[in-house]
Design a protein that fits this description.
about 475 residues; globular; about 60% helix; mainly alpha
Length: about 475
């Protein structure tokens, strides 16, 4: 017979009609808890928050070392700088947003982890805190209530329960950290650039490529490595230009994630039912419960709306990058352009870094159709309004297309008044925001506003070309 105590203590001899406290069961449970703490790094430091980020960093690095993280050669670093320099020249003719001026970087996988970890912390923490808070409220003793103790529990053992509950909560933070570490290590082995996930993960605005991952990306494409690196450098530089000169993008994306996290609520009855059947003699029992989906709540209407806003914003970013890169490398400049574009499309359809990241974090499935619709809208807007009219839409979040607009791009293009866009540009400039917004690339105020600093200069010469290809 099993008692109803939260950790699943079993009673004494099954033949005992009134089973009391079993010291052997407590010993087994403590041994299992200690083993789990050792597996999670043993760093149960008080106040480490919903996620133990020191543990994330340590475990992710260990995973990268185990999988292999080759150091970069001078040749790889030089090739990265050459590709980025040429990409910036080509992009000057394809967008009004100027280069960020940041020195190109070539990263190994652990360098990507170090550079992006602070951004991941700001993205993951709201979700982890909400989930842990919901689960903690279900623990015995939560809310000031005394936990139901097993019959016959010695007084000295009762005194251990408070710290034990604290250990269990910290263990949850460590287990969450292990999951995050595993996810980041996986991403580090696949991303080809700093902005490959589609969100601003760095603050300095400099383009960064991962040559080792780029080589793996290009395997089997039938395209030489130089062209592959140039194409991915174009995508990275386009992302960084957009992030640097549209500083409210990070705040909007983070806000959507936080809005989603704010609606997370755990079904206590489901969890209590699942935990009641845990056998402490089975060390895999808790893992089975966690992987069963019992902690995955159903989305509320507000959460679904937040996910739609996030998906639309991500699609608009990727669609704009697709169009700008296509224009920059088109016209025969990059002979393998169509092959490389198709490789990106196949990667998305199979579940690339961006797709897996948001599916794991918030259950968002980035639909390839949305990305195609966004690219079509930007292409049509550029055809009708010109390059400056297209890029001017990024001047303010209220000017951006909605999810409904992506389905009817011709209606959005027809309703986009270039005179109104120019007036907004002029007003932003009169407030002294036009050039100042670029001082902190990728970062900006959280009030959802931000200027575009390129359209007042006029469009670049559409006929300009580079001699480097």
């Amino acid at each position: 017979m099993s008692s109803n105590f939260g950790f699943g203590f079993t009673g004494g001899d099954d033949q005992d009609p009134q089973p009391g406290f079993d010291m052997n069961s407590l010993g087994e449970m403590l041994q299992q808890l200690g083993a789990m703490m050792q597996q999670s790094g043993g760093q149960a430091t008080p106040g480490s928050g919903a996620v133990n980020w020191e543990l994330v960093n340590d475990n992710a690095r260990k995973a990268l070392v185990a999988e292999g993280d080759p150091s970069l050669t001078d040749g790889q670093r030089s090739a990265t700088e050459t590709a980025v320099d040429l990409a910036e020249v080509w992009l000057d003719a394809a967008t009004d947003f100027p280069a960020t001026g940041g020195r190109p970087a070539a990263w190994c996988r652990s360098e990507w982890l170090s550079a992006t970890l602070p951004a991941w912390q700001s993205i993951v923490d709201p979700i982890a805190a909400k989930v842990q808070g919901s689960v903690s409220g279900l623990m015995p003793g939560a809310g000031g209530q005394q936990p139901a103790l097993p019959e016959g529990l010695p007084p000295e053992m009762a005194q251990m329960l408070g710290p034990l509950m604290g250990m269990a909560q910290q263990l949850g933070a460590n287990l969450f950290a292990m999951q995050v570490a595993q996810g980041l290590a996986g991403l580090a082995g696949e991303v080809v650039s700093a902005a490959d996930v589609g969100v601003p993960l760095t603050d300095d605005g400099r383009p960064a490529l991962l040559p080792v991952n780029i080589r793996e990306f290009g395997e089997g494409l039938g395209v030489n490595e130089r062209d592959t690196m140039l194409f991915l450098a174009l995508r990275e530089c386009a992302h960084q230009r957009l992030f640097a000169h549209v500083p409210w993008l990070r705040a909007r994306m983070t806000a959507a994630v936080e809005e989603y996290a704010g609606g997370i609520a755990v079904d206590s009855s489901r969890i209590e039912s699942a935990l009641s059947g845990i056998d402490p003699s089975n060390p895999e029992a808790m893992q089975e419960v966690l992987s069963s989906g019992v902690l995955v709540p159903e989305d509320t209407p507000a959460q679904r709306a937040a996910l739609e806003r996030l998906e639309t914003l991500l699609a608009l970013v990727e669609g704009w990058v697709d169009v700008v890169v296509g224009e920059a490398a088109g016209g025969g400049r990059l002979g393998s352009l169509s092959q490389l574009q198709e490789a990106i499309r196949r990667r998305r359809a199979a579940g690339g870094p961006a797709e897996r990241t948001f599916a794991t974090l918030v259950g968002l499935e980035l639909r390839p159709r949305k990305l195609r619709e966004a690219a079509t809208l930007w292409q049509e807007l550029g055809r009708v309004r010109g390059q400056s009219g297209r890029d001017a839409v990024w001047a303010h979040p209220d000017l951006l297309p909605t999810a409904a607009d992506l389905e009817r791009p011709e209606v959005f293009v027809a309703s986009t008044d270039p005179v109104a866009l120019a007036a907004i540009e002029q007003e932003l400039g009169s407030l002294g925001l036009e050039e100042g917004s670029g001082e902190a690339p990728g970062a900006g105020p959280g009030d959802g506003t931000g200027p575009d600093d390129g359209t007042a200069r006029g469009s670049a010469d559409d006929g300009g070309s580079a001699d480097g290809q």
